[in-house]
Write a structure and sequence with these properties.
This protein is an alpha/beta fold. It contains seven helices and seven strands; from the N terminus they run E-H-H-E-H-E-E-E-H-H-E-E-H-H. Strands 2-1-3-6-7 form a five-stranded parallel sheet, sandwiched between helices. The chain has a two-stranded antiparallel sheet with strand order 4-5.
Amino acid sequence: MILYVNGDSHSLGALKDNSIGQSFVDIIADKFNLSVINQAESASSASRVIRTTREFFSKKDPKDIMVLIGWGTWEREEWESNGKYYNVMEHWYKHLPDELLEKYNVWVTSLNPDLIDAKSIHIHKEIYGLHQYLQEINVPHLFFNCMYNFFGIKESEMLNWNNCYVGPYTNDLSYYWYLTNRHFVSDHWYHFEQSGHQAWADVLIKYIKENNLL
């Protein structure tokens, strides 16, 4: 069986200060004897994750695949230029071609809490659409937030994720805050050493078992 992984640098396997060791993805794959296809990218937006995950399953038989996705921060975007896609977030722009730098300068100055709330509300619906799609093609899947919960979602707007999302509306159940509140230390990119990855893998493994996702 295959574990299909998508997300940002956390799901890609980045460890604190570029140290060496097993990531939570490696640990989960070993636990359930899964082979891994990992399409995560550093600084990935939710839009890129949704696009590439849908593209993957449009070309791949969904049988015997489980999906694991860690969602990054809500302000991130994916921009296309001359047929190539670029991940964009605040302070992440040096890789952009010249024709996108002016767009970035305008975009980054527009970021404010209200705009980020609006982006969260929009992507909340987009992620739920991916959840529904994976249900329709009978692919078991588990989502989690890497940095924090959704912003701007009223209680009446909270959705039923059918036990396929770890704490979507609970900040303390995001990867970063769960580990930080348990005194694991991250670097300036919010990456943790292997002990942190092990602790998060334990959370996800328990959740997979309790909810019969595999």
